[in-house]
From TrEMBL:
Residues 14-146 form the HTH marR-type domain. This is MarR family winged helix-turn-helix transcriptional regulator. InterPro entries: HTH_MarR-typ, MarR/SlyA-like, WH-like_DNA-bd_sf, WH_DNA-bd_sf. Pfam families: MarR_2. It comes from Streptomyces milbemycinicus. PANTHER family: HTH-TYPE TRANSCRIPTIONAL REPRESSOR YETL, TRANSCRIPTIONAL REGULATOR, MARR FAMILY. PROSITE patterns: HTH_MARR_2. SUPFAM superfamilies: Winged helix' DNA-binding domain.
Length: 151
Protein backbone atom coordinates (compact mmCIF):
# COMPACT_ATOMS: atom_id res chain seq x y z
CA UNK A 1 0.00 0.00 0.00
CA UNK A 2 1.38 3.42 -0.95
CA UNK A 3 1.88 5.99 1.82
CA UNK A 4 -0.72 8.33 0.30
CA UNK A 5 -3.38 5.59 0.58
CA UNK A 6 -2.99 5.18 4.34
CA UNK A 7 -5.67 6.75 6.53
CA UNK A 8 -3.86 9.43 8.54
CA UNK A 9 -6.58 9.69 11.23
CA UNK A 10 -8.36 7.27 13.51
CA UNK A 11 -11.83 5.88 12.94
CA UNK A 12 -14.50 8.47 13.58
CA UNK A 13 -12.07 11.40 13.58
CA UNK A 14 -14.47 13.54 11.58
CA UNK A 15 -17.26 12.78 14.06
CA UNK A 16 -15.32 13.86 17.16
CA UNK A 17 -16.78 16.47 19.48
CA UNK A 18 -13.51 18.41 19.37
CA UNK A 19 -13.68 18.55 15.56
CA UNK A 20 -17.29 19.76 15.70
CA UNK A 21 -16.28 22.45 18.23
CA UNK A 22 -13.45 23.59 15.97
CA UNK A 23 -15.66 23.74 12.87
CA UNK A 24 -18.25 25.78 14.78
CA UNK A 25 -15.59 28.16 16.09
CA UNK A 26 -14.10 28.65 12.62
CA UNK A 27 -17.54 29.37 11.17
CA UNK A 28 -18.37 31.88 13.92
CA UNK A 29 -14.94 33.55 13.61
CA UNK A 30 -15.30 33.87 9.83
CA UNK A 31 -18.72 35.50 10.24
CA UNK A 32 -17.37 37.86 12.92
CA UNK A 33 -14.50 38.89 10.64
CA UNK A 34 -16.88 39.49 7.74
CA UNK A 35 -19.39 41.50 9.78
CA UNK A 36 -16.81 43.53 11.74
CA UNK A 37 -14.78 44.47 8.66
CA UNK A 38 -17.07 47.41 7.68
CA UNK A 39 -16.34 48.88 11.13
CA UNK A 40 -12.61 48.69 10.43
CA UNK A 41 -12.27 46.09 13.14
CA UNK A 42 -11.09 42.50 13.28
CA UNK A 43 -12.39 39.87 15.66
CA UNK A 44 -9.06 40.04 17.53
CA UNK A 45 -9.60 43.77 18.10
CA UNK A 46 -13.07 43.10 19.49
CA UNK A 47 -11.72 40.38 21.79
CA UNK A 48 -8.97 42.63 23.11
CA UNK A 49 -11.27 45.61 23.62
CA UNK A 50 -13.85 43.40 25.34
CA UNK A 51 -11.16 41.99 27.64
CA UNK A 52 -9.96 45.46 28.63
CA UNK A 53 -13.58 46.55 29.14
CA UNK A 54 -14.19 43.55 31.40
CA UNK A 55 -11.02 44.18 33.41
CA UNK A 56 -9.76 47.75 33.05
CA UNK A 57 -6.12 48.11 33.98
CA UNK A 58 -4.93 44.75 32.68
CA UNK A 59 -1.27 44.69 31.73
CA UNK A 60 -0.29 43.44 28.30
CA UNK A 61 1.46 40.33 29.63
CA UNK A 62 -1.59 39.29 31.65
CA UNK A 63 -3.85 39.97 28.69
CA UNK A 64 -1.65 37.75 26.51
CA UNK A 65 -1.95 34.89 29.03
CA UNK A 66 -5.73 35.23 29.20
CA UNK A 67 -6.10 35.32 25.43
CA UNK A 68 -3.57 32.51 24.89
CA UNK A 69 -1.47 34.57 22.52
CA UNK A 70 2.09 35.81 22.67
CA UNK A 71 2.95 39.06 24.43
CA UNK A 72 4.26 40.26 21.05
CA UNK A 73 0.85 39.68 19.45
CA UNK A 74 -0.85 41.67 22.22
CA UNK A 75 1.74 44.44 21.96
CA UNK A 76 1.12 44.70 18.21
CA UNK A 77 -2.66 44.82 18.66
CA UNK A 78 -2.39 47.32 21.52
CA UNK A 79 -0.13 49.57 19.44
CA UNK A 80 -2.59 49.45 16.54
CA UNK A 81 -5.61 50.19 18.75
CA UNK A 82 -3.74 52.86 20.68
CA UNK A 83 -2.78 54.48 17.38
CA UNK A 84 -6.44 54.60 16.45
CA UNK A 85 -7.24 56.25 19.79
CA UNK A 86 -9.23 53.29 21.12
CA UNK A 87 -6.90 52.30 23.96
CA UNK A 88 -4.56 54.13 26.26
CA UNK A 89 -1.74 52.96 28.46
CA UNK A 90 -1.43 54.28 31.98
CA UNK A 91 1.41 53.82 34.39
CA UNK A 92 0.70 51.23 37.08
CA UNK A 93 0.37 52.96 40.48
CA UNK A 94 2.95 50.69 42.17
CA UNK A 95 5.04 49.16 39.36
CA UNK A 96 6.49 51.86 37.19
CA UNK A 97 7.59 49.41 34.46
CA UNK A 98 4.06 48.02 34.07
CA UNK A 99 1.51 49.82 31.94
CA UNK A 100 -2.20 49.29 32.42
CA UNK A 101 -4.59 49.23 29.48
CA UNK A 102 -7.79 51.27 29.47
CA UNK A 103 -10.44 52.03 26.87
CA UNK A 104 -10.74 55.59 25.68
CA UNK A 105 -14.12 57.18 24.98
CA UNK A 106 -13.58 56.35 21.30
CA UNK A 107 -12.70 52.79 22.32
CA UNK A 108 -15.96 52.44 24.23
CA UNK A 109 -17.88 53.71 21.20
CA UNK A 110 -16.05 51.33 18.85
CA UNK A 111 -16.67 48.44 21.25
CA UNK A 112 -20.36 49.35 21.50
CA UNK A 113 -20.71 49.30 17.69
CA UNK A 114 -18.78 46.04 17.39
CA UNK A 115 -20.79 44.44 20.16
CA UNK A 116 -24.00 45.20 18.29
CA UNK A 117 -22.59 43.20 15.38
CA UNK A 118 -21.62 40.33 17.68
CA UNK A 119 -25.02 40.42 19.40
CA UNK A 120 -26.68 40.11 15.99
CA UNK A 121 -24.60 37.00 15.24
CA UNK A 122 -25.60 35.64 18.65
CA UNK A 123 -29.28 36.28 17.84
CA UNK A 124 -28.97 34.42 14.54
CA UNK A 125 -27.58 31.40 16.36
CA UNK A 126 -30.02 31.46 19.27
CA UNK A 127 -33.02 32.11 17.02
CA UNK A 128 -32.09 29.03 15.01
CA UNK A 129 -31.60 26.90 18.12
CA UNK A 130 -34.45 28.27 20.19
CA UNK A 131 -34.37 29.03 23.89
CA UNK A 132 -34.10 25.51 25.29
CA UNK A 133 -31.38 24.36 22.91
CA UNK A 134 -29.44 27.63 23.38
CA UNK A 135 -29.48 27.11 27.14
CA UNK A 136 -28.52 23.47 26.72
CA UNK A 137 -25.65 24.34 24.37
CA UNK A 138 -24.31 26.98 26.77
CA UNK A 139 -24.48 24.50 29.66
CA UNK A 140 -22.70 21.82 27.65
CA UNK A 141 -20.00 24.23 26.49
CA UNK A 142 -19.46 25.39 30.07
CA UNK A 143 -19.03 21.72 31.07
CA UNK A 144 -16.56 21.16 28.23
CA UNK A 145 -14.59 24.22 29.38
CA UNK A 146 -14.47 22.98 32.96
CA UNK A 147 -13.50 19.46 31.89
CA UNK A 148 -10.64 20.73 29.75
CA UNK A 149 -9.39 23.16 32.39
CA UNK A 150 -9.49 20.45 35.06
CA UNK A 151 -7.63 17.94 32.86
Amino acid sequence: MAAHDEDPVGDGALDRVTWALRRAELAVQALKEQRLRPLGMAAAHYTLLMSVHAEPGLAGAELARRLSVTPQAVASLVARLEGRGLLERREHPRHRHVQELHLTDAGREALRAADEVIADIERQITDTLGGDESTQLRTLLDRVTKTVRDA
